[in-house]
Amino acid sequence: MALLRAEEGFEVLDEDARLGPCAVGGPPADVWVADAEELPPRLRRAAGRASRTSRDVAPGGAGLLVLATADRPGVLRRAFDAGALGYVDKQLSPCRLVEGIRAVARGERYVDESLAFGLLRATEIPLTPRELGVLSLAAQGACVAEIALELHLSRGTVRNYLAAAIRKTGARNRVDAIRIAGSAGWM
């Protein structure tokens, strides 16, 4: 924050990341910077819409720039689906953050070269949304019957989704599939 406040031409507002940009009723932002792991629920719900521009998703037309790491392609995918225009590696030089903010403020895309391969990998999520949903409930400790009841599916269908998730991730079992999906950031 201190780095950005010291940067000429920047006005920095600190807001609650769970609420999203402009949540406190301040002036509209040009760029909203968020940790990709902590995107607010409103933006996560926007994932999968036809629009791929954060200016259609973020209040006040703010461009979304996310801080991420390359080893979590699922998180990068969710940020992309939420309409992020910029991607900055949170483990690299703060100068890149300034470059990214300036690019997104101009309405341009900005991708840190260290995240480019991770973004490519993010397009290769092998599991369908339904398989991810079933696996996510299993990760929370739900049994097959509970998952079936929650998702309005038959028990056999739930078992088929779990088997497909295990096969597609190359896992040995359900627990291993949950570990693989979780470490990739898919759920």
UniProtKB/TrEMBL annotation:
<dbReference type="InterPro" id="IPR039420">
    <property type="entry name" value="WalR-like"/>
</dbReference>
<dbReference type="InterPro" id="IPR036388">
    <property type="entry name" value="WH-like_DNA-bd_sf"/>
</dbReference>
<protein>
    <submittedName>
        <fullName>DNA-binding response regulator</fullName>
    </submittedName>
</protein>
<dbReference type="InterPro" id="IPR011006">
    <property type="entry name" value="CheY-like_superfamily"/>
</dbReference>
<feature type="domain" description="HTH luxR-type">
    <location>
        <begin position="120"/>
        <end position="185"/>
    </location>
</feature>
<dbReference type="InterPro" id="IPR016032">
    <property type="entry name" value="Sig_transdc_resp-reg_C-effctor"/>
</dbReference>
<dbReference type="Pfam" id="PF00196">
    <property type="entry name" value="GerE"/>
</dbReference>
<dbReference type="InterPro" id="IPR000792">
    <property type="entry name" value="Tscrpt_reg_LuxR_C"/>
</dbReference>
<dbReference type="GO" id="GO:0003677">
    <property type="term" value="F:DNA binding"/>
</dbReference>
<keyword id="KW-0238">DNA-binding</keyword>
